[in-house]
Amino acid sequence: MEGSVRVRFAPSPTGLLHIGGLRTALYNYLFAKGNDGTFVLRIEDTDQARYVEGAEEDIHRSLSWAGMEVDEGPENSGDVGPYRQSERKDIYEDYAEQLVEQGNAYYAFDTTEELDQMRERLKKSGNPSPKYDAITRMSMKNSLTLPEEEVERKLEEGEEYVIRLKVPRRETIRFEDEVRGFVSFESKGLDDQVLLKSDGMPTYHLANVVDDHLMKISHVIRGEEWLSSTPKHILMYEYFGWEPPKMAHLPLIMSPSGGKLSKRKAETEGIPINTKDYIEQKFEPEALVNFLAYLGWSPGDDSEIHSLEELCELFSLDRVSKGGAVFDYDKLIWYNEHYLREKPADELWPRVQEIAKEHGLDPDEDYMKQIIPLMKERVSKVEDFVTMGRFFFEDPEEYEDQAVKKWKDNSAELLEAYVEKIEDLDEDEFKAKKLKDKIKEVIEAHDVGFGPLMMPLRVAVSGMGYGPDLTPTIELLGKETTIRRIKAAIEKLG
């Protein structure tokens, strides 16, 4: 690829990092690393009214958890900082004034009431979407309509104003998108965007263009929701005489029920919406990264499992989908199960220990490292090692209703027969293979299948109708515990 690749992830600290934001960050990161480029984190905090305390920290924490190392940003500054837009205010003012001097922008002195009156007037005349544009600006209070002397007086007296972009009335704005191909907009559909607010802070649009230029950003990879703003950005690049970066607009993340995955829809459908939720629910970061990578992109073959390093090598913008990608939560769980199975017990043990302590348990390390391999095929999340495997530490006090339904009239008889078989085994004999042989002896003697004994046996030792391989489980529980639990179940369930 020609030139140095520099991309930026530029979130606003107005709340917790949305899962869609994490995907945007991921695609930027993959593209940068796959092209020996630079991954820049820029905090776009110009909207001070919506600033949320702790939001920036959440962004840093989320990226770190997902394994995305930032090359340049607020915490590891390069030579084009600062990397918080609130610390770059003077820069934007200078460029806004430059556009005014060039005739590409203008001062607007309209009050809130006057703007409201304009919109009401246009609505009454049949305009369903009134805006401040090439037509309406000529009836408003701005430096295009007011005498020069009056404009100078208002500025000298400190009267509040904004600076607006002067959008041409009739012009086709065309650009090439790396995902969508050539895109065109008619300027008559655009408003004269506010570039500099009355408090001197820039809007997203001005700050975005200026920063991308000054930070030498080669590719802007962002969500589809910014596609309609791009023609305004292209205009500004033209007015400044700058070469715009290559643009790539990512598809929306869709709800399984249709439409964009909003917070409300996500809550309704049981989908965590913020990256923090996935961290707190102890998802495997590798699973979420792998899942998000495929949420709008594919390598072009049937492969599904890739490390972050492999994804960096495989990722390309030309394989990003134009259409929305449906968030399949079950598929995410499938990824999570895969990565849990791949991790050795030594790696999982410290996390399981922490969760166990939260549940009031204090498992022995050696014992727990025997449990983990047994349960790997059954767990979906790391906490399942404790919640699903609690019976490894405590006798069941209750039995699952669904499992109890499998308890038949002959269950107690079969379990008593099994107890008789295993009571004679010494500790050296109390092994999975021998325990399975004893099951076979019981079912042959009573002329039944495996089910009539295996299900009540599982219920008796674990309280559940599902779980890890039964005879290795019984071996691990030990002879005394197993027999005690079987006898307790017979007494309670009859």
How many structural domains in the coordinates? 5
Please tell me the overall pLDDT: 95
| Number of DSSP helical runs | 21
Parts with pLDDT < 50 across at least 5 consecutive residues: none
Structural class: mainly alpha
Task: Outline the biggest β-sheet.
Answer: 3 strands, antiparallel
By CATH, the architecture of the largest domain is named: 3-Layer(aba) Sandwich
- Give the distance, in angstroms, between the N- and C-terminal Cα atoms: 74 Å
Keywords summarizing the entry:
5 domains; 21 helices; Rossmann fold; 494 residues; mainly alpha; 9% strand; three-stranded antiparallel beta sheet; two-stranded parallel ribbon
Fold and architecture overview:
45% of the residues lie in helices and 9% in strands. It has 21 helices and eleven strands. It has a three-stranded antiparallel beta sheet with strand order 3-4-7. The chain has a two-stranded parallel sheet with strand order 1-2. A two-stranded antiparallel ribbon has the order 5-6. α6 packs across α7 (230-240), α10 packs across α12 (329-342) and α17 packs across α19.
